[in-house]
Amino acid sequence: MPELAEVEYYRRQWDCGLGGKVNAVELHPRKRIFRGSDPREIVRRLTGTRLRASQARGKQMLFRFSGGSSLGLHLGMSGTLRSEPADFAAGKHDHLVLRQAKRALVFRDPRLFGRVRFHSGKSEPDWWTASAPEIHTPQFSAAYVAEVLQRHRRAPIKAVLLLQSRFSGIGNWMADEILWRAGLAPATAAGTLHPKQQVALRRATRFVSREAMRIIGRDFSDPPKSWLIHQRWKAGGVCPRHGVQLQRATIGGRTTAWCPKCQR
DNA sequence: CAACCTGTTCGCCA
DNA sequence: ATGGCGAACAGGTT
To answer: How do residues A141-157 score in pLDDT, each as one tens digit?
Structure first.
């Protein structure tokens, strides 16, 4: 489920707990979610702190606590964050619960592709600082896009859009939406894009990111009916622009839908 | 019942 | 050393 905009939506679901004290931390320590970190340390160091702030970069989230501890959360394929009443009882897939006086902050992830990381100390964790330029910043420039396309010139453009180290936060449906708007066939080798196509790609990337953040990031509203997202999973899905039957194939290792008429 | 899935990481190969 | 690709990871849904 979660790409850039959904991540932003879920991050905000814990905003109600900002400033609140963490009275207890409950977790399922054996779960794959905690790979690479020590669950007992998370319990020990977060208990008694206060949730101070949170941020998202691409699909990665950072929650900061008093005392200098941070939690890094990644939602993987099926992760969600939500707030529940204080007497909430954690279910099978609720792998991390932060108990506050008035609520429980819950991280749920049935498929376990998500991840919980932990960091303590004055420095910023490297899994946080090593992120790619965000799409809404000046660093996501035409020159940057050109360089990325050149570096990955032999890969299909669809696969390049899915590289988190290059296009921060773009996932499968956003990549298809972007290519459809830019008029680019997903299998096109990245290095063959003409200057005008590069401009269209960057413009569509910024548009889809900004609008998805505004529409989905705020309250999980549906994008307008004119967006490809409403058609791409349907059996008889058609191009919102022409009504032409969408094509479907695995490109860049993922299911890809595109309009053969407007994407070349 | 079988196929499918909005993500990342690893090993292999060029 | 770098880039591209396919498999693996898990469990719910169709």
So the answer is: 999 999 999 999 999 99
